From TrEMBL:
Residues 1-22 are annotated as: Disordered. It is found in: Cytoplasm. InterPro entries: ABC_transporter-like_ATP-bd, P-loop_NTPase. It holds the Pfam family ABC_tran. PANTHER family: DRUG RESISTANCE ABC TRANSPORTER, UVRABC SYSTEM PROTEIN A. Keywords: ATP-binding, Cytoplasm, DNA damage, DNA excision, DNA repair, DNA-binding, Excision nuclease, Nucleotide-binding, Repeat. Its main location: cytoplasm. This is UvrABC system protein A. Belongs to the ABC transporter superfamily. UvrA family. Residues 488-783 form the ABC transporter domain.
């Protein structure tokens, strides 16, 4: 390609010299003064073990600074409405272009958010039906399940010509929301025995709802409302008293001299608990909701969320509810059959959007699928759709493991999409672990050598071939191929699944062997999660570790999340004769100046806030008096600064021996988190680290069957080996392990494989193979079999 030249001198144009993104002195999180040069308009892959600093460099430094500088081009008024971004810890960043981030963050799991509303597909369908639907029922909002039908009338006053004029006005809004379920598609029913013990009175603690103890604020309201006798057992309440306790509408009351609003238990729970995404709830709240509330399909709308009027308007016999329930690949065919010149531009855009779903491998979804049920990989690919047909060039696209949740068969398609974006003249930065995705890189940056404080350095920069011979951890493992086990374990029993028909499953009957390592495989959308989470996860004795991300504030850390801090606090309290609450930075022991945060945050309105270390506690988070109390010669702040491996040794023997703490620490070390410090904020952990922390926590749950959903997510090739060792230890200890997985090394290590397919959506939902990995590779009768055979070199 010839470069444009300066017309006067014939010399290269100065603008063409900016072909690199230069990063000098990056120190974000664990980065150690990293300096690199990344070629523009090329595909650069960032590799390294989980926690080595890949995300810190790509997302928290390059992409964050690009976004911050774009935000600064807006007026301060507009910036006041935008999230404030601090400047990353870096000396020089040159050659940045506009960054578009496509990450793995789950899509907003609002109960009313679907695949259609999260993309533009639903909006376009609503306009289409408002123009072509018969009978005509109104504008596009008449087909929206998020808009309620309302009408009203009354007098309005306004100034005209210096006089106050009153006029009667009326308004009418036709929405598409089902009035019974309010657009959620399901109605709730409460198990009253989970809300209270009817043999007790309120004063005796009848309420069993989390946070509703009689000593708390809610308890005082219900005791002091005067609507019923707090000393009378609930089973002796009259019908009116029971109605007031459970269903009474908001009413002004006075309790202990304070004006308050009283509301029945059920509307209170609906507002405080059920309005939240289930995944965002604290574990004890989630357990209560699962126990007390049953969700059933709304009988009025049949789960479509739409009013009868919205469902009555049709195009060629298809209503908008029917269109949204179709598999997207089928919907694209239906839209292609519509030929109406009056809406031609709308149809062309809608066709392109729906075809993009199919092109990216999500044609098996339907537009009415709740967005909160998408896996991390599906959510990321859904976000990619809006960028596929974009005319933008010279943009930096940043991807976080785009091959997550993809069968080896689908990875080639994803690779082609990344190369298409690059070939349009864009810079593509990809954080990735899969060898198939690393192979297409023009440039590779390998971080390491290890994770956490032992990482944060660039250990290799160059081509894929150079990486292979570099001797780094990634280079050594790039061509690793797991071999089939010489012999497989014999099952000790079976778990029967009969007539499974969740989502696309077709009346599946299968016997899952127990006492062995079972791997469930199949292309994305074939029905793996529907089978296991729909028919196995809810059973007694089954511990399910799904893909929902850990949520935590900067006050949360591995010690608080795993429950490790509780036995440690009690041991400190016992050794020093004081209360356990003193050893919590979120309770009585907190430094009074920074309130246990360790830093002081200064809000600077539309500019990025400033965090400075607290001068009183020097960032240790505790009062000076608390740090005088010791256990085994260490104070609580020194314990929180320990890495897991050191803490495991410290609490395993001697004066500081705490068996309960040692057990949790051993599980954390087992999943490869030995380098994490106990007090490191959860907000600084990478996706892979959070996934493994969650796995370590669930390993302590009581249960004989473990279900793991893609545990290799975010794991480096070297860490997969350690994970396989952990799975073996679980099985050898008498547990049954069922893994939903795409990674061929895990498939090769299995004792038994259940393969679903043959395709995705309505082309899947059947068992296409069950047997040992050796039988699968010998058969080569399925896509999984073909790819596994070529992986092991059979």
């Amino acid at each position: 390609m010839s470069r444009a030249t300066n017309s006067d001198t014939g010399a290269p144009h100065a603008a063409d010299s900016h072909d690199l993104i230069r990063v000098h002195g990056a120190r974000e999180n664990n980065l150690k003064d990293v300096s690199i040069e990344i070629p523009k308009r090329r595909l650069t892959v960032f590799t390294g073990v989980s926690g080595s600093g890949k995300s810190s460099l790509v997302f928290n430094t390059i992409a964050a600074e690009s976004q911050r500088m774009i935000n600064e081009t807006y007026s301060t008024f507009v910036q006041g409405f935008m999230p404030t971004l601090a400047r990353p810890e870096v000396d020089v960043l040159e050659g940045l272009t506009t960054a578009i981030i496509v990450d793995q963050q789950r899509m907003g799991a609002d109960p009313r958010s679907t695949v259609g509303t999260a993309t533009d597909a639903n909006a376009m369908l609503r306009i289409l039906f408002s123009r072509l639907g018969r009978p005509h029922i109104g504008s596009a909002q008449a087909f929206s399940f998020n808009v309620a039908s309302i009408s009203g009338a009354g007098a309005v006053s306004f100034e005209r010509g210096g006089k106050t004029v009153k006029e009667r006005r009326s308004f009418n809004i036709t929405g598409g929301m089902c009035p019974r379920c309010e657009g959620t598609g399901s109605v709730t029913d409460f198990d009253l025995t989970a809300l209270y013990d009817d043999g007790l009175s309120l004063n005796e603690g009848a309420l069993t709802i989390p946070g509703y103890s009689m000593d708390g604020w809610y308890g005082r309201i219900y005791r002091g409302c005067g609507l019923f006798d707090p000393d009378k057992p609930i089973r002796k309440f009259t019908d009116d008293e029971l109605h007031d306790l459970l269903y009474k509408e908001p009413t002004k009351i006075k309790v202990e001299g304070i004006n308050l609003t009283y509301e029945g238990l059920i509307p209170k729970i609906q507002k405080s608990f059920l309005s939240k995404d289930r995944a965002a709830m604290q574990p004890h709240i989630r357990a209560f909701v699962d126990r007390a509330v049953t969700f059933t399909t709304c009988p009025d709308c049949g789960g479509t969320r739409l009013s009868e009027a919205a469902r009555s308007s049709k195009i060629d016999g298809i209503s908008i509810a029917d269109a949204c329930a179709m598999q997207i690949s089928d919907l694209a065919e239906w839209v292609r059959g519509l030929d109406e010149p009056s809406v031609a531009p709308l149809l062309a855009t809608l066709r392109h959007t729906l075809d993009s779903f199919t092109e990216i491998g999500l044609g098996y979804l339907s537009l009415d699928r709740p967005s909160g049920t998408l896996s991390g990989g599906e959510a990321q690919r859904t976000k990619m759709i809006r960028h596929l047909g974009s005319s933008l060039t010279d943009v930096t696209y940043v991807f976080d493991e785009p091959t997550i949740g993809l069968h080896p068969h689908d990875i080639q398609r994803m690779n082609n999409l990344l190369l298409q974006l690059r070939d349009k003249g864009n810079t593509v930065l990809v954080v990735e672990h899969k060898p198939e995705a690393i192979a297409i890189a023009d440039h590779v940056v390998d971080l390491g050598p290890r994770a956490g404080t032992a990482g944060g350095e660039v250990v290799f920069e160059g081509t894929v071939e150079g990486l292979r011979s570099s001797g780094t951890l990634t280079g050594q493992h790039l061509d690793d191929r797991a071999a089939l086990k010489p012999s497989v374990r014999e099952p000790s029993g079976k778990l029967e699944v009969r007539g499974a028909d969740t989502h696309n499953l077709r009346d599946v009957d299968v016997d899952i062997p127990l006492g062995v390592l079972v791997v469930v495989t199949g292309v994305a959308g074939s029905g793996k999660s529907s089978l296991i989470h729909g028919s196995v996860s809810g059973r007694d004795g089954v511990v399910a570790v799904d893909q929902t991300p850990i949520r935590g504030s900067r006050r949360s850390n591995p010690a608080t999340y795993t429950g490790l801090l509780d036995p440690i606090r009690k041991a400190f309290a016992k050794a020093n004769g004081v209360k356990p609450a003193l050893f919590s930075a979120n309770s009585e022991g907190a430094c009074p100046v920074c309130k246990g945060a360790g830093v002081i945050y200064t809000d600077l309105a539309m500019m990025a806030g400033v965090a400075t270390a607290c001068e009183e506690c020097e960032g240790r988070r505790f009062q000076a008096a608390v740090l005088e109390h010791r256990l085994g010669g260490r104070d609580i702040s020194e314990v929180l600064a320990m890495p897991v491996t050191e803490a495991e040794e410290f609490f395993g023997a001697g004066e500081a021996r705490i068996p309960a703490a040692h057990k949790i620490l051993r599980r954390m070390a087992d999943v490869g988190l030995g380098y994490l410090t106990l007090g490191q904020p959860l907000t600084t952990l990478s996706g892979g680290e959070r996934q493994r922390l969650k796995l370590a926590t669930h390993m302590g749950d009581k249960g004989g069957v473990y279900v793991l959903d893609e545990p290799t997510t975010g794991l480096h090739l070297a860490d997969v080996e350690q994970l396989l060792g952990l799975l073996d230890r679980l099985v050898d200890s008498g547990k049954s392990v069922i893994v939903i997985e795409h990674h061929q090394a895990v498939m090769a290590h299995a004792d038994w494989i259940i393969d679903l397919g043959p395709g995705a959506g309505h082309d899947g939902g059947r068992i296409v193979f069950q047997g040992t990995p050796a039988q699968l590779t010998a058969d080569r009768s399925t896509l999984t079999g073909e790819h596994l055979a070529s992986y092991i070199g059979a």
